[in-house]
Design brief:
Layout (H helix, E strand, L loop, with lengths): L2 H13 L5 H24 L10 E2 L2 E2 H15 L5 E5 L3 H24 L9 H21 L7 E5 L1 H8 L6 E7 L7 H12 L8 E7 L4 H24 L6 H7 L10 H23 L4 H4 L20 E6 L16 E6 L10 H16 L4 E6 L3 E2 L4 H9 L8 E5 L3 E2 L13 H12 L11 E4 H4 L24 H8 L26 H11 L3 E4 L7 E3 L5 H20 L14 H11 L4 H18 L12 H21 L4 H30 L17 H8 L10 H26 L2 H4 L1 H13 L1 H9 L8 H29 L3 H11 L1 H13 L8 E5 L2 E8 L5 E11 L10 E6 L5 E8 L1 E7 L4 E8 L6 E10 L14 H76 L1
Helix pairs in contact: 2-3, 2-6, 4-5, 4-21, 5-20, 7-8, 8-10, 18-22, 20-22, 20-24, 20-26, 20-28, 22-24, 24-26, 24-28, 28-29, 28-30, 28-31
Length: 1032
């Protein structure tokens, strides 16, 4: 009998009895909360017999519970959740109205002071008007996120009292797509964290979708299925949080409590063993034969061709119907399933949306849980009660039938103190989504979301229906797991979706890089509501990007997908009109217009600074009354923004970093997303790519990220845009300093000057990457040089017409000569910047100590590049070892073919042409019994301008010569570095020889002294003996 049935028996048995006055007083004394806690405990222990009377301070819980039930009956319905509106809404709305009035005054100024037809600067003025109209419109859209904030609270104790163990089945989907970007150990930690939910294991099923079809990921999951037999009981026994093994064990690694339970020590050893096995196989890149024979599931890779060409691979690793599927305590384990759907080169696979739809179909045949949770492979569970929080919304008797999905926020566990790249999206999760919740629910963001299965599969909404959410009984099935998985494989084939509604009316929508947003919008447009729940203990924690390139690429994909939605038939501007509330419609439009922001921000980042350099004012002067609305909007908007960020848990420096990333995203990510979307709409670009954000980074990159040093090491077109804008503002500020000192520019152009100063200050990390850093995270020289040329050209072009007209008006040759000298001033600035950029810096190689073998990898990005390699054995850790100091080096290409092989070399310098792009491996071997210190350097020669799509024929010859000069300079530095390493080795050898000579002299002297002493002693003994004999 289930807990609900037990509760009914208790209720029936006690309904005929009447509580005495004493019993009622006792119940009131301890309160209803005590009764709730008592019965929550009862229901959490399924093994309690019917006759058990759990005591609370000496009083029977059954009597307290009976009193509670009677009181509930008298008062009526008790909800499983509540929603509270934010305080201070009236004050905020008054402030917002004042800001809007000031914005209208700014528009009025632009219109009333616009140059007349034919006057100079009219087009520039109209451009500023258009930019400010856009800023005002977009600010109005953002008010939908702040106008009606709602915060929710759940009552999990009521859920336990009301339903006990009669809870619905939950299917958890974990998606991964690349074992190199998303390492298997990270994936299985996420899987283990959701397997250990505080939830009946027989009602929990976990599915891993591996879109790469990697046997390495399957092997890691197989190892995790064995580790789960010990990890899940451990979590429940000690109430572990978080339940990701890596996160939990790392959190207690600094603790040295001698009273730690022995189970913890055992768990650390088990996890370490599993981690070593998985990482060793991943490093090897293939499965050893003995591993391949351990599980029959590996036989499904016999027909495997590639990640994009293979059959369906389906394996039920743990089947809760299997009587042998028990943990170490003898309890049932959650179902665990591995799926790699069929892929063929000629078939569209629709990226993550296709993987999710395949999981929906396969899970319906295996477990068919009414609730579906999907998480990204890096987003582990940080709160084991999150599933019960979600059920409080779905199972509420009065409002639960309206709710289609419950969205939890995205949070990250690797955010730096001041959030260097703004990855936490703090204001979005703490403010904006709460605002959307007040208008009918947030967006579906693709991870950390609980869905109703039937609604994802196309169920229609009916306002008249009651809460039809019912707990499905366990289905009886006769077939074994092997038979079931063979029958279910057809559900994940390429042909299964042909001529069906999958991707249209069923499952996640196809045809958009942000399939999650468009799916959530279509669900809400059918009449369903969604809920945003942000608990105090974060439900999920993931991995945030650790480089600037990663965050910009991620936002390009998001903004491009949202902009595509805006231009599609599912646009919230017309598709959602009348189907969802106006506030929610504006909230969706706010995100869909992300990419469109690029034009206005780009205009404001360049034009006012360029005209500051020319001395032409574009804003009101300081004494003018029109200056006040500009000042009020700027001060109040950014003061509120800072206060909002601090209220969300950020820091002042974190807010400053957020403003920097705000600028960088709008002038790079959003710009490219806007261009690509428009090109695709015009039929100029038909490719749709889903770029996976890297979840791992090199150790040196991570170290810089931990120190909050911005990473520019990768070559990206977005960096060219950012560097050019930064240098334009730097040149304009430098050119206007004299005017600021002499010409009282702070009165005539205060806003322009302030804007230029802020843009220079906010770009300080970029200037450091261009000119002041020598590490591998600095800005690539090719990008820096191109940016300097473009920036100076832009500034020079802005002056060209004005200088030409001034030169024509001058009669005096001396005055004309002075103007010509002015013409070359910007070119002189360019030469200074290039010279400063090209100042030789030390080439820093890799220096490491080798015991037996060390391998390094270098990603060659272009086929046909020349790779320069050098290494020097600096020293061996033995003063007397004089032979076999050399090391072996083997160089292998991306396909594993051997390119170079050197044996017993103390130093070597060579080069080769890469016939394939990809990761090249450099493996050193040490045959000597001593540690050796090796200095290693590798450099890839490539003229990057050949691969840029946007080329200017006027600059190509210059860029070619600059690239050749850059390569020549590096070759000199490369040779210098090799010679320095050789010199250092020779110095160490000379020092060692000198030291050995001194030691040798010392030992020879000691031996000579010892021999002399011995000789004296022996002679003395001899004479003494002879003297004794002669006396006799």
């Amino acid at each position: 009998m289930g807990r609900g049935g037990t509760l009914k028996v208790w209720s029936d048995e006690l309904s005929s009895d009447k509580m005495t006055m004493t019993e009622r007083e006792n119940a009131q004394e301890f309160g209803y909360a005590a009764a709730s806690n008592c019965f929550a405990l009862l229901f959490s222990c399924s093994y309690l017999p019917l006759s058990s009377h759990q005591q609370l301070n000496g009083r029977p819980c059954l009597q307290l519970y009976m009193h509670l039930q009677r009181d509930m009956g008298s008062k009526g319905y008790l909800p499983l959740f509540e929603a509270k509106t934010a305080k201070g809404r009236t004050l905020y709305r008054v402030w917002a109205a004042s800001v809007f009035l000031a914005i209208c005054l700014i528009w009025a100024y632009r219109v009333s002071h616009a140059p007349s037809q034919g006057e100079d600067g009219r087009l520039v003025w109209l451009g500023l008007l258009a930019a400010e109209l856009w800023f005002g419109f977009y600010w109005f859209l953002t008010q939908a996120h702040r106008w009606n904030l709602v915060f929710r609270q759940t009552f999990k104790d009521r859920l336990s009292l009301r339903y006990g163990n009669e809870l619905p089945g939950v299917d958890v989907f974990v998606c991964t797509a690349d074992p190199t970007i998303e390492p298997p150990m990270m994936v299985v930690n996420t899987v283990l964290s959701v397997m250990a939910y505080d939830y009946p294991p027989e009602k929990l099923s976990v599915y891993l979708s591996d879109d790469a079809g990697s046997c390495l990921t399957f092997y890691a999951l197989m190892e995790a299925s064995e580790f789960a037999k010990y990890w899940i009981p451990f979590c429940k026994k000690f109430n572990v949080e978080p339940r990701s093994p890596a996160a939990y064990l790392d959190s207690i690694s600094v603790s040295h409590d001698p009273n730690q339970p022995k189970e913890l020590t055992i768990m650390k050893e088990l996890y370490s063993d599993m981690k070593n096995r998985v990482e060793n196989v991943a490093k090897l890149g293939r499965l050893p034969e003995e591993v391949h024979l351990r599980h029959k599931g590996f036989s499904q890779w016999d027909s495997y061709s590639s990640a994009n060409d293979h059959d369906t691979i389906l394996q039920i690793l743990i089947d809760e119907k299997d009587p042998d599927a028990k943990d170490s305590e003898g309890c049932v384990l959650p179902t665990l399933v591995y799926l790699a759907r069929e892929k063929r080169p000629h078939c569209l696979h629709h990226f993550k949306a296709g993987a999710m739809n395949a999981l929906i179909r396969v899970s319906s045949a295996v477990s068919n849980g009414p609730i579906i949770l999907n998480v990204d492979c890096d987003m582990y569970s940080n709160n084991s009660l999150a599933v019960r929080d979600a059920l409080c919304f779905f199972m509420d008797e009065k409002k639960g039938h309206e709710i289609a999905y419950v969205q939890f926020p995205q949070n990250f566990d690797n955010i730096t103190k001041n959030d260097l790249y703004g990855s936490s999206m703090r204001v979005v999760s703490q403010v904006e989504f709460h605002g959307l919740d007040g208008y009918g629910g947030p967006l579906y963001v693709g991870t950390g979301c609980f869905h109703r299965r039937d609604i994802l599969c196309g169920r229609k909404f009916s306002r008249e229906s009651d809460n039809e959410f019912r707990v499905a009984k366990d289905r009886e099935r006769e077939e074994t797991a092997d038979v079931l998985q063979e029958k279910s494989k057809v559900l994940a084939t390429c042909a299964h979706e042909n001529n069906t509604e999958w991707g249209k009316e069923m499952g996640l929508k196809y045809g958009c890089p942000v399939e999650d947003v468009i799916t959530g919008l279509s669900i809400q447009c059918k009449g369903w509501k969604s809920v945003y729940f942000n608990p105090e203990r974060k439900a999920f924690l993931g991995v945030a990007p650790t480089t600037l390139a990663q965050i910009l690429v991620q936002h390009k994909r998001w903004s491009e997908g949202d902009f595509q939605i805006l231009l599609s038939k599912y646009s919230p501007a017309w598709f959602a009109n009348g189907k969802i509330s106006l506030g929610l419609q504006l909230g969706y439009c706010c995100y869909c217009f992300w990419a469109s922001n690029c034009l206005a921000v780009l205009y404001y980042s360049l034009v006012p600074s360029l005209y500051l350099l020319s001395g032409i004012p574009l804003f009101p002067e300081l004494p003018s009354p029109w200056f006040l609305p500009f000042a009020y909007v700027v001060i109040s908007k950014y003061t509120y923004s800072l206060g909002e960020f601090l209220w969300s848990g950020g820091t002042i420096l974190g807010w400053w970093n957020e403003q920097r990333i705000w600028l960088y995203k709008r002038t790079s990510s959003y710009l490219l997303a806007f261009i690509d979307t428009i090109a695709k709409s015009l039929g100029l670009n038909s490719d749709t790519a889903f770029v996976i954000t890297a979840k791992v980074s090199k150790q040196e990159v991570f170290n810089r990220y931990a120190r909050e040093v911005m990473e520019f090491g990768d070559s990206s077109p977005m960096f060219t845009t950012l560097a050019t804008i930064a240098l334009v503002n730097l040149v304009c500020l430098a050119g206007s300093v004299k005017s600021a000192i002499i010409g009282r520019i702070y009165e005539t152009m205060p806003l322009q000057f302030l804007l230029c100063v802020i843009l220079v200050l906010i770009n300080w990390p970029l200037y450091q990457g261009l000119f002041f850093r020598n590490d591998s995270g600095k800005m690539p020289s090719s990008i820096a040089i191109k940016s300097i040329v473009l920036a100076v050209s832009a500034c020079d072009y802005n002056h060209a017409e004005e200088r030409r007209e001034t030169w024509k008006k001058k009669k005096n040759p001396e005055e004309k000569r002075k103007i010509k000298m002015k013409v070359g001033s910007l070119e002189f600035v360019a030469v200074i910047l290039v010279a400063f950029l090209c100042t030789p810096t030390a080439v820093v190689g890799i220096r490491f100590v080798i015991d037996r073998e060390e391998c390094f990898s270098h990603d060659v990005k272009y086929e046909g590049d020349t790779i320069h390699v050098s290494f020097v054995v600096i020293k061996a850790d033995s003063s007397w070892h004089n032979s076999h100091e050399g090391v072996d080096l083997v160089v292998k290409g991306p396909s594993g073919d051997q390119i170079q092989d050197y044996q017993d070399k103390i130093s070597e310098k060579f080069e080769f042409v890469a016939h394939q792009k990809g990761v090249h491996r450099f493996c050193f071997s040490n045959k000597s019994p001593y540690y050796e210190t090796v200095d290693f350097d590798v450099h890839e020669s490539h003229f990057s301008y050949y691969d840029q799509h946007a080329k200017d024929e006027h600059f190509d010859p210059l860029l070619e010569q600059i690239s050749k000069l850059e390569e020549a300079l590096y070759n000199v530095q490369f040779e210098q570095h090799w010679l320095e390493a050789q010199t250092e080795r020779q110095a160490i050898v000379n020092e060692a020889m000198s030291r050995r000579a001194v030691h040798k002299a010392f030992y020879e002297s000691a031996a000579l002294i010892g021999a002399s002493v011995l000789q004296v002693y022996l002679l003395r003994r001899l004479f003494e003996r002879k003297l004794g004999m002669s006396r006799v």
